[in-house]
Design brief:
The complex is a heterodimer of chains A (296) and B (295).
Chain A: H1 3-30, H2 44-47, H3 54-61, H4 63-95, H5 100-110, H6 118-129, H7 134-141, H8 156-172, H9 174-181, H10 185-193, H11 198-220, H12 230-236, H13 242-245, H14 248-258, H15 262-291
Helix pairs in contact in A: 3-15, 4-8, 4-9, 4-11, 6-12, 9-11, 11-15, 14-15
Chain B: H1 7-39, H2 42-46, H3 60-66, H4 69-100, H5 110-122, H6 127-136, H7 143-148, H8 154-165, H9 169-177, H10 182-193, H11 195-211, H12 214-219, H13 228-237, H14 247-256, H15 259-292
Helix pairs in contact in B: 1-15, 3-15, 4-8, 4-11, 4-13, 8-11, 8-15, 11-15, 13-15
Classes of the chains: A mainly alpha (296), B mainly alpha (295).
């Protein structure tokens, strides 16, 4: 068999993708050196002076960096936990529905917000929580004064987490619902004959069937603890809520592309991708060890 | 399934149906709300009277959009971006997935390429180096920056690769017997049997390109190069950043904008998603699950 020539074809198949990957993923990685320089656009990467870890020490001295790291962690962990629990409860409720048509209809419609962008969802969130929003109109019925929710730093994180769960719970439930289709219906019948209530059947049959999936998703989400969701925050925040709503990604954007502090922004970005990289590797290792999960 | 008929059980069923109905309404709300805003009387929408049902009826917002050349320009850029981006990404992903679906015995350097891909999936240079790279290619203001800027969607390649691995070996062996080469095997055998996963990936990529606003914002310097989401972001959502607004100023600012016109623009931006949704719906659940199954 002319195995050599087949190998050659395999390389040709990989070629366009590898070129694309090199141009837009690998070449940018070399730009990381800017984090260790005092980068000046006029002198370029090769002419700018080296400063060692100065950008990192400066970054951690800034009060802003502590705020954004803290905010990022709180928002991201809140989203991870609720985006696991709410879809789980939703899947359990849907699993109890008797009418198959109703079940199918609910399932089809709850995916919808996942397919809308945060730009569009932000217009709706503002329409709900804005000064002239639906919530304030509702409050007015009871004589309460309207509130400016979008400019209230005290509830901004809750608003972010809540609206994210609203957008994603249906989509996130897919994997649970798929795992439930694998449960043998005879188990429920046998349990019912033995006098098990629906609640007990759910606890002892349905939940165990989902436990591996829950653990796996939980472990894999470890890599997301610094991902608070740029698109959402960027489209909803404003300077009034920076104290609770500003995250690493939005901070890097403002530092780098608005204030043109390239080296500092690159350092902050590298901090994020470096930590995330380590966490993802750990999560893959754990997932492999405990759930036999392999990425490839 | 045996259903118990106790009182509690029946009560729970009723309660459950209502809860789920409320959740469905919550998920339909974005669509309904935007529609209500866009068809309500302008004055009612602008003074914030529209909540969960339209007030009055007027299509003037849609008529106004007809004369907005910038809006249609952005719409057209987004269509081009989504079509080009989906076709290119899908073809390249399929071509990468096939050799990578082989074991090392069949394709010697397979694992090296796989590690490079996974590395690029979980690590990146960050926003600033990426921006400067794209800039140095001279792609600012070019549609190719939007189409190619986000690099290879490695996750999709892995999804397709896992699907390819579950294609029965007999199919490929029979084709080899008939003298088919790798390209024929890929495009005549693997692609046709992988429609669910390819439809899923096509959906992912086209939704990504349709919804993406950030690359449009930073890589396009002129407003007439903006894709639709960036256009909407700038027109509707954008608040002056960098300045400190008091809650009072913020309130005034949100009153100034033309609510019903913006609503109409947002509604039109939702339409392509609503059109493709029913078609891909039947594929994507199976596509996601089958792609993630390992041998």
């Amino acid at each position: 068999m002319k195995s050599r020539s087949i190998q050659k074809h395999y390389y040709f198949m990989l070629l366009p993708g590898m070129v694309w990957l090199i141009l837009f993923s690998i070449v940018p990685m070399f730009g990381i050196v800017m984090a260790f320089q005092n980068f000046m656009p006029g002198r370029g990467i090769f002419g700018s002076p080296w400063v060692g870890l100065q950008n990192f020490t400066y970054m951690f001295q800034l009060g802003d960096s502590r705020t954004v790291i803290f905010n990022t962690l709180i928002i991201a962990v809140g989203k991870i936990v609720l985006n696991l629990l709410v879809p789980l409860v939703f899947a359990l409720l849907l699993n109890e529905v008797v009418s198959l048509r109703y079940k199918k209809m609910v399932q089809t419609l709850v995916y919808l917000p996942h397919f809308l962008s945060w730009v569009i969802m932000a217009t709706i969130v503002i329409g709900l929580f804005g000064y002239h929003g639906v919530i304030n109109a509702f409050f007015k019925l009871f004589g309460a004064d309207p509130k400016v929710f979008m400019a209230d730093a005290g509830i901004f994180r809750q608003l972010l987490i809540g609206t994210d769960v609203w957008k994603e719970f249906g989509y996130n439930a897919i994997i649970f619902l798929a795992a439930l289709t694998g449960v043998n219906p005879n188990l429920y019948e046998a349990a019912a004959i033995d006098g098990s209530s629906r609640w007990r059947s759910m606890i002892h049959i349905t939940l165990p069937a989902l436990s591996t999936t829950v653990v796996l998703l939980g472990v894999l989400s470890l890599g997301n603890v610094l991902n608070a969701g740029f698109d959402q925050v960027y489209n909803l925040y404003n300077p009034v809520v920076y104290s609770t709503g500003d995250i690493i990604d939005t901070w890097v954007y403002r530092l780098g592309l608005q204030n043109l502090q390239y080296s500092l922004a690159t350092a902050a970005g590298l901090f994020k991708s470096g930590v995330s990289f380590v966490l993802i590797v750990i999560s893959y290792a754990l997932a492999y060890k405990y759930a036999d999960y392999t990425v490839f | 399934m045996v259903r118990s008929t106790t009182f509690q059980s029946k009560l729970f069923d009723k309660f459950n149906v209502v809860i789920l109905a409320l959740l469905v309404l919550a998920c339909l709300f974005p669509l309904w709300y935007t529609l209500c805003i866009s068809i309500s009387d302008k004055s009612a929408a602008n003074s914030g009277l529209v909540t969960v049902y339209p007030i009055g009826f007027s299509l003037t917002s849609y008529q106004e959009i007809m004369g907005d050349r910038l809006f249609f320009n952005s719409f057209w850029i987004s269509i081009q971006r989504a079509v080009l981006g989906t076709v290119i990404s899908l073809v390249i992903s399929v071509m990468m997935a096939y050799p990578l679906s082989k074991v090392r015995r069949e394709f010697k350097t397979r694992n090296i390429f796989m590690w490079i891909l996974v590395f690029c999936m979980i690590f990146n240079g960050g926003l600033i180096p990426w921006y400067m790279t794209v800039q140095s290619y001279g792609l600012i203001d070019s549609i190719w920056a939007l189409v190619l800027g986000s690099s290879v969607p490695v996750f999709n390649v892995i999804l397709i690769m896992n699907f390819f691995r579950n294609v029965p070996k007999d199919l490929e062996e029979a084709a080899v017997m008939d003298g088919a080469g790798p390209w024929t095997i890929l495009f005549r055998i693997f692609v046709p049997v992988s429609v669910p996963v390819l439809a899923t990936v096509a959906l992912f990529v086209s939704v990504y390109h349709w919804n993406e606003f950030f690359n449009g914002l930073v890589l396009m310097n002129t407003a007439n190069k903006y894709p639709l989401q960036t256009y909407i972001q700038q027109m509707v959502v954008n608040m002056p950043a960098g300045t400190s607004l008091t809650p009072e100023q913020y309130r005034k600012l949100s009153v100034l904008s033309n609510v019903s016109l913006n609503g109409a623009k947002v509604f039109i931006a939702m339409i392509p998603m609503l059109v493709i949704y029913p078609f891909v719906q039947k594929y994507f659940v199976t596509g996601i699950m089958m792609g993630s199954v390992k041998e």
